[in-house]
Amino acid sequence: MKIPPSTFNEAMQWSDTNEWLKAMHKEINLMSEMNVHELVKLPEGCRAIGCRWVLKFKEDAKGGPVHKAHLVAQGFLQVPGINFGKTFAPVA
Questions:
Q1: What domain range is 66 assigned to?
Q2: pLDDT per residue as tens digits for the range 38-75
Q3: What residues contact residue 67 under an 8 Å CB cut-off, 6+ apart?
Q4: Nearest CA to 31 among 56, 16, 14, 51?
Q5: Distance CA 56, CA 36 (A)
Q6: Residue 77 pLDDT class (50, 70, 90 cuts)
Q7: Could you give the number of structural domains in the chain?
Q8: CA distance 23 to 19
Q9: pTM of this prediction?
Q10: Chain-centre distance of CA 80, in angstroms?
Q11: Nearest to residue 4, comparing CAs of 76, 67, 61?
């Protein structure tokens, strides 16, 4: 299996761009369905924390490639007490 693209821009240059876009839309829709985000107004003088796509290939039951996309926050920019007040484990 080949190495997945490392950035969004790189994924948009691949021949399977539509598959990556489908995976990204699936992730965004799932986040909306699970209600894991809240749209709020950014306080004056604050900057939003960035995010990026993590792209992977997985194998389906027949051994074929499945495109997976996860949107992750760039948490290394967060400051305790300012950008967040709780810590959540990404896996159980």
A1: 1-36+45-92
A2: 778 888 887 777 889 999 999 888 888 899 999 988 76
A3: 16, 19, 20, 22, 23, 55, 56, 57
A4: 51
A5: 22
A6: low
A7: 1
A8: 6
A9: 0.74
A10: 22
A11: 67
